[in-house]
UniProtKB/TrEMBL annotation:
Component of the cytochrome c oxidase, the last enzyme in the mitochondrial electron transport chain which drives oxidative phosphorylation. The respiratory chain contains 3 multisubunit complexes succinate dehydrogenase (complex II, CII), ubiquinol-cytochrome c oxidoreductase (cytochrome b-c1 complex, complex III, CIII) and cytochrome c oxidase (complex IV, CIV), that cooperate to transfer electrons derived from NADH and succinate to molecular oxygen, creating an electrochemical gradient over the inner membrane that drives transmembrane transport and the ATP synthase. Its main location: membrane. GO terms for biological process: mitochondrial electron transport, cytochrome c to oxygen. GO terms for cellular component: mitochondrion; organelle envelope; organelle membrane; respiratory chain complex IV. InterPro entries: Cyt_c/ubiquinol_Oxase_su3 (IPR024791), Cyt_c_oxase_su3_dom (IPR033945), Cyt_c_oxidase-like_su3 (IPR000298), Cyt_c_oxidase_su3-like_sf (IPR035973), Cyt_c_oxidase_su3_a-hlx (IPR013833). It is found in: Membrane. This is Cytochrome c oxidase subunit 3. The lineage of its organism: Eukaryota, Metazoa, Cnidaria, Anthozoa, Hexacorallia. CDD domains: Cyt_c_Oxidase_III (cd01665).
Amino acid sequence: MKGAVLHPYHLVDPSPWPYIGSCGALFVTIGSVMYFHYSQPWIMYMGMATIVFTMFVWWRDVIREATYQGHHTQRVKLGLKYGMLLFIASEVLFFFSFFWAFFHSSLAPTIELGAVWPPQGISPLNPFSVPLLNTAILLSSGATVTWAHHAIISGKRRDAILGLTVTVVLGLIFTALQAMEYYEAPFAISDSVYGSTFFVATGFHGIHVIVGTTFLAVCLGRLIAQQYTRHHHFGFEAASWYWHFVDVVWLFLYVCIYWWGS
C-alpha cells in the first residue's frame, strides 16, 4: 500500500527548530560578551528569548508526535530510554570532574593555601544549617516524585498531580534557599581554589535543579491536560530519572564539600 509504514521506528520530519535554537545560543554567547565588556545586554536578551521560544515550539511538536500522532512506539520509547540513560551517564562524568578538582586541592593543600583545608582566611558555611535543610528538602522531593510515578502507574490521577505539584514546589524552595545561601556566603568564587570549586560544583548543581524543576513543571502541565496514561508516560519517567540523579549528586556534594570539606 502506498505510503504505508512497515517499521516501528520514527523518522523525524525536517524541523527548523534545531537551527533556530542554535542561532539563539549564538546570540546568547555574543550578547554575553557584549554585556560583560560594553554593558549592552539586548543581544543576550534576544538570544534568551529565541531559546525560550524554541523550547516551547519544539516541545509542542514532540508532544504532538508522542501523544496524538502515535509515532512513539515501544521500539522508539526503548531508544529514548537508552538516550536518557546515556545523557545521565555523561552528566555523572561532568560532575566527576568537579569532585576531582575539589579532592585534588583538598587532600593535599599547597603551601599557598596555608597547607590546610579550608584555606587560611576562609570561613566555610555551617553544614548543619541551610545545607542540611536543603538536603531534607531534596530527599523529600525524591520521595514525592516516586509517589507521583506510582500514582500514574496505578491510574490515580489526583494523587499523581498532588505528588508532582509538591515536588515542583520543593524544587523551587531548594533554589530559593541556595540563592539566599550564596547571597550570605562569607567568601566569593575568587577566594582561592576553595571558592572556585565550591561555587562551580554547587552552582552547576543548582542549574540542574532549575532544569529538573522546569522538566517536572512541564510534566505537571501535561498530566493536568491528561496527556499521560498508565502505559504511555515516558516524558515523566525521564524527568523522574533526572531528578533522582540530581538528588544523588547533592548527597555527594553535601557530604564531601559542605560537611567533610568544612
